[in-house]
Amino acid sequence: MAIFTAFLLIFIAGTVNGSFALPTKYVFRWNFENIWLQYALWAFVILPWVIALILVPQIFTIYREAPVHILLIILIGGLAFGVGQVCFALAMRMIGIGLGFVINLGLGIMLGFLLPLVFQHPDQILQPFGLITLFGTILAVFGLLFSNMAGSLHDRQRKGLVAPTEKHDKTYAIGVMLAIIAGVSSSGQNFAFSLTGQLQQFALHLGANPVGAANIMWPGFLLCSFIPYATYMLYLTVKNKSFHNYAAKSTGKYYLFAFIMGLFWYGSLIAYSKATHIIGVLGPLVGWPLFMVLIILTSNFWGWRHHEWAGCSKRVKYTLWVGLLFLIASVIVLGYSSVLHT
Predict the structure, then answer these.
(1) pLDDT digits 0-9 by tens, 299-324
(2) Which domain holds residue 111?
(3) CA pair distance 202, 15, nearest whole angstrom
(4) Which of 28, 63, 100, 95 is nearest to 217 (CA)?
(5) What's the total number of domains in the chain?
(6) How far apart are CA 307 and CA 309, in angstroms?
(7) Burial code of 287-308, b = ≥16 C-beta within 10 A, e = fewer?
(8) Which residues contact 274 (CB under 8 A, 6 or more apart)?
(9) Which tens digit of pLDDT belongs to each residue from 239-253?
(10) How far apart are CA 272 and CA 10, in angstroms?
(11) Residue 125 — φ and ψ, nearest 5°?
């Protein structure tokens, strides 16, 4: 029953996170930086701290008395994640969304599983749990590669290009490097979470609510992430002179959209964190790739619903379906590895 609850929570987390950006399709009078800065205020600052103060009123005491190395993990991991998000935004402009996502999510899925496995649970590497989870993670990466191939083919067909343009210049190389940094920082998010399990136990010892204890790291982590992320968005706001967009007519609902985005994104972290707590000490190992795969599957679903693949050729459809089948297979394998662990 417990493992079913964990799966249900990860399923909810993945589908909610894969849907959090949908409101951006209805924001027409704000620039990129306007909506994403407002979203970050809710997702990285307001909601994590408000929810934490409700569930864990003693959070400041917990942070004050926590071991220094735990606080350093939160600080460094949070800043790195924020920088990684900025790098990802820049990479998409330099090398495109398709390749940027493949590098970012591919590294995020793989390293998000491998780092906790190698550094915290090396004894599990050659055990059935470790091998099967690794296999499921590799299936996910293959699914991502085929999905990106389909997206690249579809994009070229829409633009009437026969073959992709070769880019070996400095800008392209920098874009790839930025995407790699983003992928490493994304995996670091889960690695930092797995390294701070002691903080969860400390919070429970001080009488924290179990759900609040499972999420005790995120308020501090995301506050640190907000610093570099908000700095970049404010830079874009000044550069593009888009402050006036916040007062544009008929944009009041955009603030609600930003709140919904933040609620969905942070809400998915709450569900994911609780699920890994239910699974146990190896929860972040199997939970993270499963969480990421469900995000990708959900975002693909919404892409179909919004006709992003309308008019694509049979070759594109077949390639996309191969990718989706790899992703679905990875969910089955990762689910089995969790049952095997328990």
Answers:
(1) 777 777 766 666 778 887 888 788 88
(2) 2-341
(3) 31
(4) 63
(5) 1
(6) 5
(7) bbbbbbbbbbbbbbeeeeeeee
(8) 9, 210, 211, 214, 215
(9) 999 999 999 988 999
(10) 5
(11) -60, -45
